[in-house]
Amino acid sequence: MNRHIPRPGNASGFVLVLVLAMLVILSLLAGSIAGVTERLREQAQFRQVRLRDSIDIASTRATVFYLLNTQRMTTGGLTLDQNVSFGESGIRQIESDEDLMSSLPVGNEIALDGRPYRGLNAIRFSLQDEQGLFGVNWSPPRALQRLLAQTAAPTSIPSATLINRLMDYQDPDDLYRLNSMEADGYLSAGMQPPSNRKLATPMELMRVVGWAEALGFLGSAELSDTVSLEDTSMINVNTAPARVLLTVDGVTAELVERILARRKVEPFMTGRAFFEFLGVQSSAEEGVAVYPAPSGTLKLWSANGGQVSLVHWTLTPLEEGQPPWREDYELIQSKYQSEGDIVHPVASRLFPKPRAAQR
Fold first, then answer.
1. Which residues, at least 6 apart from 204, have a Cβ–Cβ distance to it below 8 Å?
2. Contact 72, 292 (CB under 8 A)
3. Which helix (H) or strand (E) covers residue 264, if one does?
4. Residue among 111, 125, 117 nearest 73 (CA)
5. How far is CA 218 from CA 110, 212, 224, in A?
6. Spatial CA neighbour of 242 closest among 232, 250, 251
7. What is the mean pLDDT of residues 102-111?
8. 3-class SS at 289?
9. Which residues are CB-contacts of 77 (< 8 A; sequence separation ≥ 6)?
10. Percentage of the residues of the chain whose pLDDT score is greater than 70
11. Is residue 60 classed exposed, middle or buried when 0-12, 13-18 and 19+ CB atoms within 10 A define those classes?
12. What is the distance between the alpha carbons of residues 142 and 164, in angstroms, rounded to a whole number?
């Protein structure tokens, strides 16, 4: 009987294959561990950046509010030091309470026209004067018509009808204006009925029938950069964005470009100077302002990405027993600023130059 004797070469070949297979498995396992480790490292770095940004946003926010409550305003914006301007007489340190009354710009103010500034490290911020926005609760019908006329695609609803619906949304009665709607019409359409009061937030304007379609050219962030709820129809021509300037009687798109270019050089000191610069006839009913209101919005965001925090503030220095300011509401917006935006430095030691690692 023949007996099969295994060859030594077959056993060694099997062991070699087994070793190679184990090496492949170990290599794949090491690669997987390395990949997981890299992802965990990236997640840790991301959380570290977000944590640092959160701290810097809170610090920038507190610093801006400190400036709002300790520094005076001029027609150029929020001052940063104790200097005061006297026009041709030059700039000097404040010496008396009378000096605080000067509204002439010093030249290094933080503008309240929504331009971005560099905060702490990677944080950016902007201030917008409330009076530079469109007072939808108080503006006359002719101004509302000029706002509605800016849409690129006219709606099927006439502007007069939209204005009537806005007024019926706000007034306390159930009487109808021409082609308007009251509570029963909203309920029939499956909508929330009118509040019968002035608008409380800019987004509430989109709840008025027809207005969401009419202002479809404005996103939620752009709407808050356009609409004000303050009890005024005055517009600060030193801080108003282009679309708000277009609601001023006599101001065209070409004139808006001239206004924005002039503001970069020096602010308008009076409403009369504004209309004289434009070469248009001013109207007693067309009120414009040149000095910031004691309220506005503060936006904060990070150059590293993420959302925008919007805080609406009101200065209250004369309210006894209350903080010197209040925060009326806060919104979170998507980040829409482009990478090409120019970020302005702040001429204050409170905002030091960013770390080299930041951009």
1. 195
2. no
3. helix 253-265
4. 111
5. 26, 9, 9
6. 251
7. 91
8. strand
9. 105, 109, 110, 111, 112, 113, 127, 239, 292
10. 92
11. buried
12. 12
CA separation (Å) from 74 to 85, 267, 301? 10, 10, 26
Residue 300 β-bridge partners? 125, 309
Whether 268 contacts 238, CB under 8 Å: yes
58 vs 96: which has the higher pLDDT: 58
| 74 φ, ψ (degrees, to nearest 5) | -130, 180
What stretches of 2-114 adopt beta strand conformation (E)? 73-74, 77-78, 83-85, 91-93
**Given this model, what pLDDT does residue 358 score?**
44
Distances (CA, A) of 130 to 197, 233, 240, 344: 20, 11, 9, 21
284, two tokens: 């007693």
Question: Residue 258: which H helix or E strand, with range?
Answer: helix 253-265
Q: In whole angstroms, give the CA distance from residue 350 to residue 123.
A: 13
User: Which residue spans within the chain are E strands per DSSP?
Assistant: 73-74, 77-78, 83-85, 91-93, 117-118, 123-129, 134-135, 227-228, 235-236, 288-289, 295-302, 308-315, 325-333
* Residue 26: partners with Cβ closer than 8 Å, 6 or more residues away: none
Burial class (CB in 10 A: 0-12, 13-18, 19+), 35: exposed
DSSP output for 139-153: --HHHHHHHHTT-SS
Q: Return d(Cα 126, Cα 132) in angstroms, integer.
A: 14
Contact present, 127 and 298 (Cβ < 8 Å): yes
State pLDDT tens for residues 187-213: 998 999 999 999 988 889 999 999 999
Greatest pairwise CA separation for the chain in angstroms: 126
- Structure tokens given for 62: 């507190």
Q: Which are the contacts of 256, defined by CB distance < 8 A and separation ≥ 6? A: 242, 245, 246
- For residue 336, pLDDT over 60 is answered with no
SS3 percent helix, strand, coil of the chain, rounded to 5, is: 40, 15, 45
Radius of gyration of the chain (CA): 30
